[in-house]
Fold this sequence. Notes:
- The chain is of the alpha/beta class.
- The chain folds into two domains: 18-38 and 289-409, Lyase, Ornithine Decarboxylase, Chain A, domain 1; 109-280, TIM Barrel, CATH 3.20.20.10.
- 27% of the residues lie in helices and 23% in strands.
- It is built from twelve helices and 19 strands.
- The strands form three sheets. Strands 3, 12, 13, 14, 15, 16, 17, 18 and 19 form a nine-stranded mixed sheet that branches.
- Strand 7, helix 6 and strand 8 (150-155) form a beta-alpha-beta unit.
- Helix 5 packs across helix 6 (133-145).
- The longest helix has 20 residues, at 213-232.
- It binds ligand LLP.
- Ligand LLP binds next to helix 10 and helix 11.
Amino acid sequence: MTTPLKHGPPTAIEPQPSFDGVDLQALAARLGTPLYAYSASAIRQRIGELQAALAGLDATLCYAVKANSNRAILALMAAAGLGADIVSAGELQRALAAGIPPDRIVFSGVGKTDEEIGAALAAGIARFNVESLDELHAIERVAQARQAMARAAVRINPDVDALTHAKISTGRAENKFGVSIAEARRWFAERRQLQHVQLDGLHVHIGSQILDLTPFRLALHRVAAFWRELEQAGHPVASIDVGGGLGVRYRAGHDTPVAAADYAQVIREALAGFGGRLLLEPGRYLVAEAGVLLTRVLRIKEGTERRFLVLDAAMNDLQRPSLYDAWHDIVPVASTEGPAATYDIVGPVCETGDTFARARVLPECRPGDLLAIQGTGAYGASMASTYNSRPLAAEVLLDHGRYAVIRRRQTLEEMVAGEQSAQDWATP
Ligand code: LLP
């Protein structure tokens, strides 16, 4: 049996009636739910913090497009002078369309196709972050065919535990990313055999949502030692890309993110004396806390063992809880003085994994109540799908009391566009 609703004391949960000066109740009434809302001011503030922390260094921020690839977000990054870290031709196209200059674009990822390498060369991107010898050869081949010169950094796998969720750790030897220092050493020793690749950079990215400076320090010291070794061996290093990974606060009173200034200090110390260009690839840090997912309570279901709060948002809109057991603070939009209740907060998708939170305490809810799932500006909309044939949610940018729709809600027609019945049969 479900325990009867306890009319206990009000929760300590802070409601979120507005964001960036915009009334969220009015916004949801106008645009419907589920709705992603991003604060432009909050994003600009994060950019400013990171830029201030890096003052005096020759450092370029290459925003990790995958975190939130909406063109309006990318345009905001472009306007602030940022570059981009891309992992596909699609992200390249988005970054260029948003006005990010190609000489501030770096291309990471273990599976770049020849077509993607060609498109990046044609665009004139700053660097390829190369993840395998086979890829290095592919870049040489594609660049030769185009009579172009590619600039490349080797992505070092420093075998460091990022102390984060296993699915977003990338810097252990067992992970698919980067190559060992021993292998990178061989690449540099033979780099003059490359006619169309200028191999003169180092790259490292050990994982995401990192809340501790130790793994960053460890990884950067390994990279720094290698940079010094390379310089002594006569291989100048023009750039060091320190990746992304800075964690954010998903759970108030629980997560303690690293301060930008402390992170920058680790970079300054580890790479002291480095005279080349520094690149950083922050994604989450810039946008996660600048986003909320607005969703309405559809109904309350009293199960035999649990009380379920069924929302109109689901795992297709926000995958992080089901993929990584990620915590997101969930708060009411209206200020409620009501008593507290404990809910399992779920979506309508037909999977038990469609659960945003278990045993979460909220002010007692009623159907129609508006909730804000916080910290959803990164890896929310960009990872959404139409699973269960649920159209993609709308997205809106907020800025000092005003809003602009930056993605309209997908229509059912748009959702099935491109599909067709099997009529024109052929043999390959
Ligand atoms: N650079 C590279 C090469 C990356 O692979 C990533 C993220 C970043 C930069 C940006 O990392 P950030 O600063 O955002 O931590 N979907 C997962 C996160 C996957 C991250 C993938 N790579 C999540 O929702 O937690």
